[in-house]
Prior knowledge:
Elements: H1 6-16, H2 23-40, H3 47-62, H4 70-82, H5 89-120, E1 126-130, H6 135-146, E2 150-156, H7 164-173, E3 178-181, H8 186-189, E4 195-198, E5 202-203, E6 209-212, H9 215-224, E7 228-232, H10 261-266, E8 277-280, E9 287-290, E10 293-295, H11 300-318
Parallel strand pairs: 1-2, 1-4, 2-3, 4-7, 7-9
Antiparallel strand pairs: 5-6, 6-8, 9-10
Helix pairs in contact: 1-2, 2-3, 2-4, 2-5, 3-4, 4-5, 5-6
The site of ribulose-1,5-diphosphate has 18 residues, from helix 2, helix 6 and strand 6.
Amino acid sequence: MEAFPREVVEIAEGIRSMKIRGAGKIARSAAEALKIAAEKYSGGRDVNVFRKYMARAADYLLSTRPTAVSLPNAVMYVMQAVFQPADDIEVLRNSIISTANRFINESLEAVKRIAEFGSKRIKENSVILTHCHSTAAVSVITEAYRQGKVVKVYSTETRPFYQGRITTRQLLENGVPVVQIPDSAVRYIMHEIDHVVIGADTITSNGAVVNKIGTSQVALAAHEARVRVFVAAETYKFSPMTVIGELVPIEYRDPTEVVPADWLEAHKNVKVLNPSFDVTPPEYIDAIITEVGVIPPQAAIMILTDRLGWAIDKIKQSGLTKLRFEDLVEE
Ligand code: RUB
């Protein structure tokens, strides 16, 4: 059995360990990994053996983190090239490379469009609150700042992994005035806030937004204070699986991200939970800003049928509720 190239393993393990993180980056990195897997394949000319190898690579990438749907969506997008009819592996290899490149380029373009559309929704002299680190949210905020509309951004720490520090650093690099606050200060500070701008890992068919743990508390505090909540998300963050009734799996990470290992050791009877994401209901979201337009969360199903109809069809045809590409390769 052909082993995966070193770069593919590095990307997969980078996603698992969160060296590579954030739903958009995870998706682009997975597409890149499949491209490298195809480029470096040297296992002979048998098309089915090649398909099996690509399917194993896809399943390996899918096993790294469960919540962000951008990962299976990116993998499914590229794997369409693997499953097209062909009897020459060079045809498949070239098609995989160009499909992966297309996904990566379109994904980067999408973030630019989101910044353009989202910045229009930010009013003059705004104070913004953001949570975790989202490339899409940072680009909306940065673009609105460039247009002179943002006076200050509050960035939450985002315990336990402190992705908020990445946001703070990036906004500072972009020249945006930013204040770092602990997550627990969100409701205290909310009276100063004009807009909440956050990203998404997965958006369900009913418009619920799955994002970093704590997002639903931020949205609840914003709702109470009548502060608008904008979600910046590319269309590949919408989940085709939820159309057939599947729930979004929430990742639980290691307790040692919450408390140090020696503390755990000294308190053996204490159970520590580390859920990494939560679900914000559509009622607490004012708009989702995508690269194809700004929509109310209730219109999520439109995005799914327009942009991901092909994936919904594939999922229905395969009859699989859990994607496993190896099962799709004929023996
Ligand atoms: C990151 C997170 C981000 C979304 C969107 O979680 O919740 O808000 O992924 O980010 P983690 P982006 O750090 O656990 O991956 O807009 O960059 O896709």
